[in-house]
Amino acid sequence: MNPRTTGLGSDGGCGQLTMWLRLIDTMPKRGRRTLAQWQDRHQQIINLLKAEGALSITALAERFDCSPATIRRDIAILQPQMTELKKYHGVVAVDGAVTERHYQDKVTESQAEKEHIAEAVCGIIADGSVVGLNGGTTTMAVAREIVGTNKQVTVVTNAINVAFELSHSDVTVVVIGGVLRTFNFETTGLMAVHNLESLHLDWVILGANGIHPVFGVSTVSEPEAAIGAAFARHADQVMVVVDHTKLGHQALHRMLGWTDVSALASDVAASPVIAGWRPGLPLELYHQTGLANVWRVMPS
């Protein structure tokens, strides 16, 4: 009797049969394991995601020595059972973890705090500086503050929306090119990294998805981590700009370690958290506006 064509009545048994068949379909051709073993792997996937927040499909496949296609099927089976399980651009996460989102989904979050951070940042950038800006809502706030205060700087960016914002001013703008990620308006890839190699920056201002006292500065996207690191390599000073909601979080990909960072700018709500990171992390208050602070990373 063919199990794929046999009905199990109207008592919901067909749903159970479908689940069994989908589980069987995940088994590699090189050899079948027992159903209990596959259920154990699914539980391990759930445990890993709850512990680490987010993992790429590729990373999960490497962990379990299987193909990315197998992991995608596993996730498809698990998602109806776990509504908090989400998949974003090749990354699987438990809802609430640091994951990649569309730019427009973030523009209204902590908006006032980002404006305060931008004001503090522009207060220490001297006229005549060459300033790098990556993409993001906080760096966009910095771009708007540059325009609003008529800052006399040259800006190098990989974000086309940042470049467009700056086009309304007398600021000289250099767009580094690369492959456009349309959902967040940033260019990345080998071309973008290569084009930075011939440039020198006085400052680079970098937004991030997470900042942690041990893990450092992180982002959910490997291409964005690579472009951020490339910006930092060609800058005399590296400033990370994040609002307080990013502190203590670790996204999937490290962009920079603390030895690569010169300064951290955040809103005043971050101060108690940063105070708790010291003295293990040598941060010294460098500039304050009353609503935002810039902390200098001191040599250890």
UniProtKB/TrEMBL annotation:
InterPro entries: Carb_Metab_HTH_regulators, DeoR-like_C, DeoR_HTH, NagB/RpiA_transferase-like, Tscrpt_reg_HTH_DeoR_CS, WH-like_DNA-bd_sf, WH_DNA-bd_sf. One of its GO terms (molecular function) is DNA binding. It holds the Pfam family HTH_DeoR. The lineage of its organism: Bacteria, Bacillati, Bacillota, Clostridia, Eubacteriales. Keywords: DNA-binding, Transcription, Transcription regulation. This is DeoR/GlpR transcriptional regulator. Residues 38-94 form the HTH deoR-type domain.
